[in-house]
Write a structure and sequence with these properties.
The chain is mainly alpha-helical. It has helices at about 1-5, 5-15, 25-40, 45-55, 60-75, 80-90, 95-110, 110-125, 130-145, 145-160, 165-180, 180-195, 200-215, 215-230, 235-250, 250-265, 270-285, 285-300, 305-320, 320-335, 340-355, 355-370, 375-390, 390-405, 410-425, 425-440, 445-460, 460-475, 480-490. Helix 5 (about 60-75) runs parallel beside helix 7 and helix 10 packs antiparallel against helix 11 (about 165-180).
Amino acid sequence: MPSAHNPFLLIQKIIKTQPIHHPATTSLIFRLLIDAHIRSQKPCPAALYLDRMLRCGLTPPITTFNRLLHLLLASDLLHTASSLFRDAKNRVPLNAYSFGIMIRGLCDAGRLDEASNLMEEFEAGGSPPSVVMYTTLIDGCCRRGSSDAARRLFDRMKGQGVAPNEFTYTVMISGCFRNGFSNAGFELYDEMKRAGVFPNLYTYNVLMSQCCKSQDLVSAFQLFDEMTEKGVLPNVVTYNTLIGGFCRQSMVKDATKLLVRMKDAGLRPSLVTYNVLIDGYCRAGKMVKASRVLNQMKQNGHSPSTITYNVLIDGFSRAGDLVGAANAYREMKDRGLTPTNVTYTILIDAFAREDDMERAFEMHRSMERAGLAADAHTYGVLMRGLCMQGEMKDARKLFDAMNDKGLEPTDVIYNMMIYGYCREGSSYRALRLLREMIGNGMVPNAASYGLTIRVLCKDGKRQEAEVLLSKVIHSGLQSSESINGALFDMQ
């Protein structure tokens, strides 16, 4: 019999035949069905039964509703979650947790206005928003670059007597750093301590990361000492951050010592740890040591990622070891890893640096055959190679092709093209590109200005050279060898 093999069929039959006459029994059956589907990570059937339960005039437990709401959002079913939340408003006693879950879902989707309206709706019900709601909305604003809105919410919550906790402060600090307000972030950290709110591990990691990005390793290690003194144990992310800080300043020996300290603390290096160290050695041109770290990574059970091989290929290329780069590329493919547009661009750059534009373009064609689209950086690498060889017609064709594909030239590309035209003595083309660059809101570098002025002088176009020099003076651009050379030519 069907019911003997599938109890859900019997339950569904009971629901269809007796939804009204036995409300307590039917409500229990609905709950069992919904809970079973939630435990099985099946949000859609669970939502279907909860909707049917509501239509039968039955009220699900708020815990069941919240669990389902959370599952729907975790499954990227925001539309279904929103619909269910809307239908449940007048039928289920929604609590602060319900609103908090929905606000989080809307923030994750970037729908900040709806999230803000929902929080105001909760507040209109007579209860002030919780610290979790405020923190969630503040985090959403920070992640979308709305620092001013985040600050207003932060001040508003304090004005309502809702005390920010360590998560609120950390979100605000992280948002300040992410949006370029470093000083404001550290001021918030000081405020946090004055308010008696203890920084957590994530707070310290965010602060140390910013110090390392600013190349302030002294402050980073002061924070490291502070956290350990307060009993906050560093994790793998903490050590990765500091190791990365050392590597960015070419202090790879110190980074290696920190790796030993990390292991002594009982922490196992992650894939990121090894990638950061490999990158450090590659930056320093120490490819033998970079390869040793790669072997250590494998021996310790980590499989190198595409990022690992991209870093190695780039390191070998910059060291002029194209054989090493080719071997790393081959090993990458042998391991079943698919080269990305970054991989191809690195290889294109390697061949271009060796003046082997034929192989550079062959790699570009391989990239296109793989279904990968070249970005502005890829085009820039190819154009630089052509400019260095004086192949300005081909460089211009690529420049136009890039524009046709909707890719905007970067300031690096403009400066390179101007350099190429100046080298071949094409003052008209160099000046035209310089004006186009300025018109697009970019600032030419000193070399572009200086070389263009010099080539204009050589072509006898002194008036245009003087106009350009005047722009340089008024722009506040610092003097350079190129600018000084241009001034000498104009005397």
